[in-house]
Amino acid sequence: MKIALLSQNHTLYSHVRLKEAAEARGHTLDMIKTLRCYMNIASHRPEIYYNDEKLPKYDAVIPRIGASVTFYGTAVLRQFEMQGVYPLNESVAILRSRDKLRSLQLLARDGIGLPVTAFAYDPKQTDELLQLAGGAPLVIKLLEGTQGIGVVLADTNRSAKSIIEAFRGANVNILVQEFIKEAGGTDIRAFVVGGKVVAAMKRTGAEGDFRSNLHRGGSAEIVRLTPEERSTAVRAAKSMGLNVCGVDMLRSNHGSVVMEVNSSPGLEGIETATGKDIAGMIIKFLETHAVSGKTKTRGKG
Questions:
Q1: DSSP annotation of 214
Q2: In terms of DSSP H, where are the helices of 25-170?
Q3: Is residue 207 part of a domain?
Q4: Which stretches within 90-173 are classed as H helix?
Q5: In terms of domains, do 247 and 149 share one?
Q6: 251, 259 Cβ separation under 8 angstroms
Q7: Per-residue confidence at 292, pLDDT binned at 50, 70, 90?
Q8: Is 171 left (phi over 0), alpha (psi -120 to 50) or beta?
Q9: Cα separation of 255 and 273, whole Å?
Q10: Partners of 17 in the beta sheet?
Q11: CATH number for the domain that contains residue 106
Q12: Which domain holds residue 130?
């Protein structure tokens, strides 16, 4: 099988592991820098060029598109889809998951547990927004933030109001969510491949930080999921339409709640914590599912 991996940084642990796993199973994997691709959008002849050469036909494409290049990255991925190349995750599903507001609306529609979340445009509605979210302490999130950047904890209604008004004054869209105090600065990432949870870890934030992102100094350890958490992770992945994803959950007093569904989850933390060959599982999934033209949307949507 001939596989393309779309990314900007070929030296990242996740990308090196995917290449190693593909080659170990007898496949070839080409690493392609997303932003160096350019496209010929011609009727019935969708072409992709890279380093002044037309890319050959691939059997599958693994999109590892950074949040900062989502727009262009998904455009390149759509071009692969229109060529009939099987994507590990489809462009439409990636866009769903990257839009924090849309993803929460879809999860809520499907009855998946979420923290109490409020959203408004007009800063004059700040008091009503705080009331909807249940009052301080509250977590205020930028819709465009990633890896814990743009996430603020407001301890009082007064500080929450100041933060919200400051963000809205700068014309920045935000979500306001209840703070799950009982989670104790930890969250759970369930790694889903092909509709099954294949691994899970508990992440703990650095001392004094309520965010548990490993990029921000957090630590990880293997964790046993409850049947409810396992079911929640699988349903969340299905809501987004993602074949491979990391589902981030908090353990609250009213059950597990989903914080985010990550369409390009890192492999280093989960493989180190669990000792499992996640990269190999991803390649094995492609072996059984990568059929030309099988993409549900074929670049539509």
A1: G
A2: 70-82, 91-98, 100-109, 126-132, 157-169
A3: yes
A4: 91-98, 100-109, 126-132, 157-169
A5: no
A6: no
A7: low
A8: left
A9: 24
A10: none
A11: 3.30.470.20
A12: 117-179
pLDDT digits (tens, 9 = 90+) for 29-74: 999 999 999 999 887 788 999 999 999 999 999 999 998 899 999 9
Q: What percent of the chain has pLDDT over 90?
A: 64
Residue written as tokens 């889903």? Answer: 192
Q: 165 with 216, same domain?
A: no
Residue 225 and residue 159 share a domain: no
The CA distance from 35 to 208, in Å, is 37
Q: Are the CB atoms for 64 and 5 separated by under 8 Å?
A: yes
Q: Are 102 and 223 part of one and the same domain?
A: yes
Distance CA(178)–CA(136), nearest Å, equals 8
Query: What is the domain count for the chain?
Result: 3
- 102 in the same domain as 206: yes
- When pLDDT is cut at 50, 70 and 90, the band that residue 126 belongs to is confident
Does residue 109 sit in the same domain as residue 248?
Answer: yes
Q: How far apart are CA 122 and CA 165, in angstroms?
A: 9
- Cα-Cα end-to-end distance for the chain: 28
| Residue of 155, 234, 124, 153 whose CA lies nearest to 190 | 234
- Rounded CA separation 200/72 (Å): 31
Decide: pTM greater than 0.85.
yes
Q: How far apart are CA 117 and CA 136, in angstroms?
A: 13
Q: In whole angstroms, give the CA distance from residue 224 to residue 241.
A: 25
- Provide the 8-state DSSP code for 80: H
User: Can you tell me which residue has the tokens 């930890």?
Assistant: 186
Instruction: List 187's β-bridge partners, or say none.
Output: 203
Query: Does the pLDDT at position 140 exceed 50?
Result: yes
Q: What is the CATH number of the domain that holds 150?
A: 3.30.1490.20
Residues 183, 223: contact at Cβ < 8 Å? no
